[in-house]
Design brief:
By secondary structure, the protein is of the alpha/beta class. The chain contains eight helices and twelve strands. The strands form three sheets. Strands 2-1-3-4-5 form a five-stranded parallel sheet, with helices on both faces. Strands 6-7-8-9 form a four-stranded antiparallel sheet, with helices on one face. Strands 10-12-11 form a three-stranded antiparallel sheet. Helix 6 packs across helix 8. The longest helix has 16 residues. It starts with a strand and ends in a 6-residue tail after the last strand. Keywords: Activator, Cytoplasm, DNA-binding, Phosphate transport, Phosphoprotein, Transcription, Transcription regulation, Transport, Two-component regulatory system.
Length: 234
């Protein structure tokens, strides 16, 4: 099996060098860019398995590149971890809402970052026990990693796909935010529970069509968390 390719988009050479050493020791193929223009060229040419994207970059912000990647069909499925010195909650939430799958605040420990990369790649590659799951006209195909509402193909990011896949494979049961983090992100990944709320909002929005709102299948269970169900619950 070939080594997974990690693109590091970071303007500070010392951080790139540190990440190169950590990633190569962990058996990843390392490629790098120091601005969003070079990064986009590498993403199109190299198709990395995951992107580590700095928030502040010369020639434009990492958020700008993230928006572009999530708009384009051939790049929207690539998982992205934001590297940011901005610890404020609104910046973290903004990155997640645009499409980031995870974030790491500087300074960070390389081992923690490697653990998050491993968990995210496992999530992206994980197959469901069922190849095709259908509920009320909403169909999830695990092999092609596509979701359909009737004949309409819906646009879901990799994290929203994995979250929906888990929900549809485990309907009618209420899960706490902590349980969802463990099941979808992995028990060794440490994220704030508010991360779940951001991805639930994004998933519900992605499941809305002109003809039906499949986002309503994801129900908020007061005092517990969330449940996927086609039934009415009090």
């Amino acid at each position: 099996m070939s080594e997974p390719t990690v693109l590091v988009v970071e303007d500070e050479k010392a951080i790139r060098d540190m990440l190169r050493m950590a990633l190569e020791v962990a058996k990843y193929r390392f490629i790098e860019a120091e601005n969003i223009r070079d990064a986009h060229v590498l993403i199109v040419d190299e198709r990395p398995d995951i992107v580590l994207l700095d928030w502040m970059l010369p020639g434009g912000s990492g958020l700008e590149l993230l928006r572009r990647l999530k708009r384009e069909n051939n790049t929207r499925e690539i998982p992205v971890i934001m590297l940011t010195a901005k610890a404020a909650e609104d910046n973290v939430i903004q990155g997640l809402e645009v499409g980031a799958d995870d974030y790491v605040t500087k300074p960070f420990a390389p081992r923690e970052l490697i653990a998050r990369i491993q968990a995210l790649l496992r999530r992206s590659a994980k197959d469901s026990a069922q190849d095709r799951i259908g509920v009320n006209g909403l169909v999830l195909d695990s092999d092609s990693r596509r979701v359909f509402a009737g004949e309409i193909a819906l646009n879901l990011g990799p994290t929203e796909f994995n979250l929906l896949q888990f929900f549809m494979s485990h309907p009618e049961r209420a899960y706490s935010r902590g349980q969802l983090l463990d099941q979808v992100w992995g028990a060794n990944v440490y994220l704030e529970e508010r991360t779940i709320d951001v991805h639930i909002r994004r998933l519900r929005k992605a499941l809305q069509t002109d003809h039906a709102d499949y986002g309503e299948l994801i129900q908020t269970v007061r005092g517990i968390g969330y449940r996927f169900s086609s039934r009415e619950h009090s």
